Structure formats: structure tokens, C-alpha cells
Amino acid sequence: MKDLPAGATTIPVLEVENLSTVFATQDGAVHAVNGVSFDLRPGELLGVVGESGSGKSVTMMSLLKLLPMPPARIASGSVKLGGRDILTVSDAELREVRGGKVGFVFQDPMTSLNPVFTVGYQLMEPLREHMGLSKAEARRRAAELLGLVGIPSPEKRLEDYPHQFSGGMRQRVMIAIALACDPQVLIADEPTTALDVTIQAQILDLVKELRERLGMAIVWVTHDLGVVAGIADRVMVMYGGQVVEQAGVHALFEDPRHPYTRALLETLPDMDGGRSARLRSIPGQPPVLRDVPTACPFAPRCAHAFEQCHRANPPLEPVGEGHLVSCWWDYARTGTGPEENTHA
Amino acid sequence: MLTFTIRRLLLAIPTLLAISFIIFAILDLSPGDPTSQIPLTVPPEVREHIRTSLGLDEPFIVRYLLWLKQFFINEPLNILEEWTGYTFGDGDRLRISSWATRSPVVDLIVERLPQTLWVVGMSYVVGALIAIPIGVISAYKQYSWFDQVGTFVSMIGFSVPTFFTGLLLIVIFAVNLQWLPSIYDTTLRVTDWSSFVAQIKQMIMPTMVLALYNASQISRFMRASMLDNLNQDYVRTARAKGMKEKTVVLVHVLRNSLIPVVTVIALGVPQVFGGAIITEQIFKVNGLGQLLIIGIQGADIPLVQTLTFIFAVLIVLFNLVADILYGVLDPRIRYD
Ligand SMILES: Nc1ncnc2c1ncn2[C@@H]1O[C@H](COP(=O)(O)OP(=O)(O)O)[C@@H](O)[C@H]1O
Ligand SMILES: [Mg+2]
Prior knowledge:
The structure holds two protein chains of two kinds. By secondary structure, chain A is of the alpha/beta class. In chain A, 32% of the residues lie in helices and 22% in strands. Chain A contains twelve helices and twelve strands. In chain A, β11 (317-320) and β12 (323-325) form a beta hairpin. Chain A is globular. Chain B is mostly helical. In chain B, 74% of the residues lie in helices and 0% in strands. Chain B has helices at 2-29, 44-53, 60-84, 105-140, 145-159, 162-176, 193-230, 233-240, 245-273, 277-282, 288-297, 301-329. The N and C termini of chain B lie close together (6 Å). Classes of the chains: A alpha/beta, B mainly alpha. Chains A and B meet through α2, α3 and α6 of A and α8 and α9 of B. Residues 56-57, 189-190 of chain A line the site of magnesium ion.
């Protein structure tokens, strides 16, 4: 694929297959993730986009079983990291993956750090746990990491508590923690959403730079297609707990297939415009799925929906080089999609 | 922190003066009179003489100032003399004395303090020590059978009055099983192994009655505080870093959850000195709670004034201690 950075091989580091997550709530089940599959190649940056409530966070947390279980339950699927399914490994092995091979950055830097421990302590914890470093070694590495994420006078700041850092600086600390043990994969769940625009841009630049320097694969979750355009190699669009479209970043912006992707793109401001319009202009709300969807989850909000869209959930089908779409309207329009459909 | 402490201590002075004035005034207005207990056959001149000797014919404000001087200057100097063996000044100072026994009130208190500290203090320590692990486990395994039983027992613990649990224990362990004495023998001196065992035995029931009550409250606090923190984002971060579950709960969550609990425990310490009026009464422990009851019943106003004021001082002091602890435990709190 032409969008991949040089040197990237095609053997994925992370292979997610048919992942489904269900919450048991007082009002019944919520099918937050429904059969999500995707790959992540070494060094690749995969953008995951979708409105709030489309199942992005639940998908990411499910990968490392970070959801409270119960109420959450991973109903099906596998998450292969270097060929091994981490959903079935022992707790001890899972802990080695968390913070070791896979680093995680969360949305809200204000609450994601423990307020009563110093930043140095929290940064040294994974180093000592996974890399078995001595206190002195861990300290040295922690200072190095703070420097790496662009925090001035890192040695001194190790002694500081989270509340002594600004939001942007805290998110840098979170990134340092996630990168502490040289992970193969960095999962960032809306890491800039809680930050203001200038800080957002700084964090994006930092991640671009770190990626070039360290070469890990990144899953970058955002509800802002504009952010994705600037950094991603490939984009996965999610809606109703499933993947509705997946393509290289150029293909997605030049030839968006799914009406939802098109709607998202239409809400993007012009290159020189403000970004306030965002996603608000798609009428309607993402669904809360009480059952496994038996129809296209976007159909109720879709301008192109026809009878079949309300009858069956479209599978995710290849429609071009590395381009996958799940939409009956698109299959009919372009003569692609599953066999039965093209013959129909 | 130091300037905060000093500022708070200075602020405590007017607070305590106001409290002392109110306590003194209220009790002075009460109808008690030291001569009311004296037989009616005693002639009025003698009564008047007794009143004068107690300084009761002085105006209110003079008596208040005298009491203040006795409380803040004479008594502390006296204690200092006893501790150091030096004599300050002529060593002949007027002390606050009980109307009923004529002995200095502070001596009465010092005499009874050990029993109260042993029984009530021990029950507080025991209560806190069992409450913290119970609260932690209850929260971590919310709605498990352990949590359900814990909730039930602590509900009983603080809704059933101590006179009931006290009597229940006496009936079971003293009357029926005859394992433990029902009356606390205050003349017992621990000199050897058997007297030590006897001391432990007589402490068990009153301590347990109060410990149950304390543990019920503190474990609820601990549970609620743990539950608050278990849902915080930083807990997920700790798990995402691959920390062991034990580290996540007993380091990250517990450290945060203890902050409010420790301050609540500190705020409760003055109650220990206040003694446990009912429990002390049931087990005949001659502690401070019992002393206060005797003082009130005998209209022994200096005794009641002094005891009440000491409790007030302790409450003000431990409020400060709780604030300081908060500042020490929570790095977000900076007082200066
Ligand atoms: N703890 C939970 N209990 C019940 N439902 C949940 C829970 N967490 C998330 N969900 C549901 O899962 C769906 C997807 O949520 P989420 O993954 O957070 O969306 P996104 O990250 O895309 O904004 C939503 O419908 C939400 O209501
Ligand atoms: Mg989210």
C-alpha cells in the first residue's frame, strides 16, 4: 500500500478479529461493539473515527480487557499480538502486555494520573515492573522519557505531583508512561479531545515526531476527521459498534463510500475555516444497541437508505485496494459487495 | 505548613476563650449550689461561710477570670512541677477544686484518665484496625457475601445501643459462660503474668462493645471512600500500565481512600477522652465518662466546667490535627 511509511512490513503486529463487547445494564444488554475486525501493521498509524458513542473507546479497552467485567463482557473475538491471542492468556501474561508491549493514553489527562503520587513514581512503576530496572536506573530512564516528550528540566519535574502540571503537560506525562517500556503498539483514545486547540496541535506534532523516532504502531482514536487527515496512514470509521468503512487516508478523503463517512467529511470545515462545525450537523443520534444489530445501524439517519438497509446488516466488503465498506447502497451503486448482492 | 499551624493555633486562642466563657456562664446559671447537699440543720451563717470560702460571693466576672487563671496558669504549672520536680514561684497556687470531694479536679481527672485511655482508646484503635481491611474488601468485592455480611453487621453495630450489646455480652460471657468478669476492677495492678491476663480479660468486653461501634462507622467510611476511588480514571491507568491488582488496590486506591478516613479518625479522637459514658457505667469502669456523670449528678460545677472545657480543647486541637493530616496526606492541599 502506497500510504504505508517506508520500511513497514505487511505482517500485522495487532490483528483484531470479530471482537464483540456487551454490557449488562439494569435496562438490559448494550451491544457496544459488534464484530470489529482490523489489523495494525508495524509502524503504521491507524486513525479510528466516529461520533461519540460509536464504540471506539469500548473497542480499545476491550483489546487489553481494561473494562470493568462485569458489567462488560467480551462476547466474541480474538486480539492477536504477535500472533498470540491476548484475550485468552493468563492474568500475569496480560499484565506484561499492558504497559509493556502495548501502551495506552486516555482521553482526560486531568484525572488519568494518580493525584497522590509524584509523576516520577508513576513513571517508574512500569519500568520497574516490566523491565526490572533498579530504582536508580528507573529514575534515569524516567527523566529521559520526560525529556523525550518535551517536558523542560525533567530531572526536577520527577518530584512534582500531577496537579503541578498543566493539562497539556500531563498528557505528555501520560504519553511518556505509555512509551516507557518501548511498546510495539501505542493506543491513544482521544488524547487531545480534552485539550485546547493550540495544545492539541503540539501534542499531535509530538506524536508525529515520536513515531518517526521510535517507530511503534499507533492507533489514534478521535472524533475529528480533520486530526486524522494530518497524521494517519489508514482510517477506520466506526458507527454503532462496528466498522463501516476502512481505507488508506487518501482513498478515504478522495473516495469516501459510506454515507456516514461522507456525512462526516461534509461536516469538516474548509481548509482555512474554523473547526467549530465538527460532527454536529449530522441529524440524529448514534443508536444504543439493545440487540445484535440485524439492520444497518446507520439506516435510520441515512439519506440513501432503502428497504434492504432495514432488513439486513451489510457485511464489511472490499470495494477497492485496501478499501472496505459496509453499505448496501454503495454495493448497489458500484456493483461491488457480497456475491448475492451483485447477482441480485 | 508551619505558618499554617501557627496561624491556626493563634486562632484557636480566641475560639477557646469564647467556648470557656460560654461553658462557664451556662453552668454558672444552673441551679446547683455547693451547700444544697449540706443537711438543713446546718445554720445559715455556716452556709454563708462555706459559700464565701468557695469564693461564690464574688461577682461572676471575677469568678470567671479566677477560673481562667487557675485553668491556664495554675494547673499547667502544677503539672510541670510534678513532672520536673522543680518548684516555680512559691508553689502555693489555688487550684480548681471539686465542690463534692474538695480535691483538685485535675487530680481526679489524672486518676481516671488511664482507665479511659486503656478501654476507650484501645477500642478505638482496635475498631480502626479491623474497620480498614473490612472496608477495603467490602468495596473491592462490592455486593459479595462478604460485603453483604459486613453491611449487615455494621448496621447492627451502630444502630444497636452500646448498653444493649454491653448487657448482651455480660449475659453471655460473664453470667452464662463465666469466662469474663462483668465488672471492671480498677484496683487491679498489673505486676505479673496472671494479673496481666486478668487485666486483658476485664478489658475484653467493654473494649469489644465500643470497638464494634467504632468499627461499624469507620468501615462504612472506608468502604465508601474506596468505592469512590475504584471508579477513578487513574485506577484504569494503573491497570493499563500492567500493575498487579494488589498494587492497584493496596497502593493506588488505598492511598487515596485513606485520606478522608484518616481525618475522620483524627476528628473522633476527642471522643476517646470524653470516655464512653454508658459503657463505662455498665462495666463499672471508673473512667472520665463516669466522672462526668458523677459531677453532673452531684452538681459539682467546677468539675463539670473543667471536664467540658478539656473536651472542647481536645476537639479544637484534633480539628487542627485533622487539617494538618489532610495537608500531609494530600499533595494537592497546600496551606501556605
Ligand atoms: N459502562 C458501560 N455500561 C453500559 N454501556 C456502556 C458503558 N460504557 C460504554 N457503554 C456504551 O457503549 C457505547 C459505546 O461507547 P464508547 O465506546 O465510549 O463510545 P466512543 O468512545 O466512540 O465515544 C455507547 O452506546 C455507550 O452507551
Ligand atoms: Mg470515547
